[in-house]
Amino acid sequence: MTDRYEGSFYGRRKGKPLSPRREALMENELPRLALDLATPAPEDLKTLFDADVDEVCLEVGFGGGEHLLHRARTNPRVGFIGVEPFVGSMAKAVNAVVGEGFRNIRLYDDDAVNVLDWLPEASLDLAYQLYPDPWPKKRHWKRRFINEQNLDRYARAIKPGHEFRFASDIDTYVDWTLRHCRDHAAFEWAAETASDWKTPWEGWPSTRYEAKAIREGRIGRYLTFRRV
């Protein structure tokens, strides 16, 4: 996982071959669900969705999609933009979105920096980055998505007073993110007690990755930063 792609994404995009059905979904349905970054973003992101929504939330790197889909099911008045460059994960999400008839999800299957740069200023009500690739080797830390430039991107897109949420079970990445966000003038850490960063957010669905981490003795940390 050492190849660099456009923007800040590193790693492989493809794993096992898709089934013919999922290949067809990716070819026929993803274009309908995907953001079209070749056209200017609408001033009001709520118009991106077929459903009537009151808020718009971004999830960068949704992996297996458990969190994205759960949040969309339980919050039908919220529009969700999900970004995931890994083909297998995107195909799984497209299958669920089509199968369940979601009308409050839009997708993007490339580098998240493209979406963050495309979004209008102060257009997001909430942004998540959950259990991202931690690049645990020190020589690879420069590949971590959380850095000054990408925090600038988040800060531009998130509405003042609203939140950026980050979760990880890798202590070095938790410390890294906490330091970078606390050093960034646009964000303040919202935690007041230890339970605020040890406890998942309300409505949190446990994911397969989180369950695996717990089995292996790693504990998730849940950081909330307010866009000042």
Could you describe the 3D structure shown?
With 228 residues, this protein is an alpha/beta fold. The protein has a single domain (20-227), classed as Vaccinia Virus protein VP39 (Rossmann fold, 3-Layer(aba) Sandwich), CATH 3.40.50. 34% of the residues lie in helices and 19% in strands. It has 9 helices and 7 strands. Strands 3-2-1-4-5-7-6 form a 7-stranded mixed β-sheet, with helices on both faces. The longest helix is centred in the middle third of the chain and has 14 residues, at 87-100. The radius of gyration is 17 Å and the shape is globular. It starts with 19 loop residues before the first helix and ends with a strand. Mean pLDDT is 93; it is low at 1-7.
